[in-house]
Amino acid sequence: MNSFEGIIEFVAVAETQGFSAAAKQLSCSTSHVSRQVSRLEDRLGVTLFARSTRQINLTDAGQLYYSQCRELVTGLEQANEGLNSQQITLSGTLRVSAAGGFAEEHVAPALMQFAKLYPEVTIEMDFNSRMVNFIEDGIDFAIRYGALKDSGLVARKLVDRPMAAVASRDYLHRFGEPTHPNQLKQHSCIITNNDHWQFASESKPLSVRVHGRWKSNNSNAAIAACEEGLGIAYMPKSSLARGLESGTLFPILQDFWGPGNSSWIVYQNQRFLPLRARLAIDYLVSYFADWAQAGK
Questions:
Q1: Which residues does the UniProt record annotate as the domain HTH lysR-type (predicted)?
Q2: Between vectors from CA 73 to CA 56 and to CA 3, what angle results, nearest 5°?
Q3: For the segment 228-274, what is each residue's pLDDT rounded down to a tens digit?
Q4: Which of 56, 74, 78, 118 is at a distance of 20 to 30 A from 105, taking alpha carbons?
């Protein structure tokens, strides 16, 4: 074959599963992508995609060709980037979707430091917990907490976030301090994401269903409610650090604190990330590398 024309478009369609989505990734028209793929099929003499009105799937020949072209395209892009990596000036807009107190209090400041390193980069942070469509919404990556569903997205762990149970001294004075997670059923609890709290025990994990007078999907509001004596909170310890340090929150049930979940950087595909997004992701991973050692 004398030309690589159409291979980049072919790989984009295979990975986004659509001509329109591939066009958005490549910043070109849908007709251009379709034309390039059709010409590639003509040159190869095979059908690479089985097209229908609802979906596009790789044929057997297309799957084989894609597996060989994928690394080819990756290598080409890395070579292009590496050629001028020492002289590159980042620019453009980095769009990040995030949610929760961790993103507000820790990720945002980290990205501010990243912005100082690259003055030509504009950063847009959308604090929203909804599931984003990375292509349609123009999001480079998202910060998410908890177990991730197998959605075909790429995920890089930022930090593990062990749990802590706390209450205000006023609440404990009025209602007493529980000594076992099962006793939480008789207490008012601050509920955030769910009302089933997972604790650690010597034999096996312990799940306790709780109830309470305050429910909020905003961690700062939940912490404030706990400080005001409205109930017991069970959240990632990193979110409670200020209250624990200042004494407005008192630790309880310490022998039963669970390992919690992790916070992740989630994005659609490494290949189609702009360099500013890749560098930002690497920066965040490095920034939080010593999180566990710091006792967060």
A1: 10-59
A2: 90
A3: 999 999 999 988 989 999 999 999 999 999 988 888 898 877 666 77
A4: 118
Residues 6+ apart with CB under 8 A from 17: 55, 56, 57
- Residue 47, token pair as written in the block: 């059908």
* Helix, strand or coil, per DSSP, at residue 73: helix
For β-strands 196-199 and 206-209, DSSP reports them as: antiparallel
CATH number at residue 154: 3.40.190.10
Residue 169 has pLDDT above 70, yes or no: yes
Strands 141-145 and 92-98 turn out to be parallel
Q: What is the model's pLDDT at position 86? A: 47
Average pLDDT over residues 286-294: 72
- Examine the fold and report which residue of 83, 104, 132 is the final residue of a domain before the chain moves on: 83
What is the tally of helices (H) and strands (E) in the chain? 10, 14
User: Domain of 243?
Assistant: 163-259
Comparing CA positions, the residue from 286, 292, 219 lying closest to residue 262 is 292
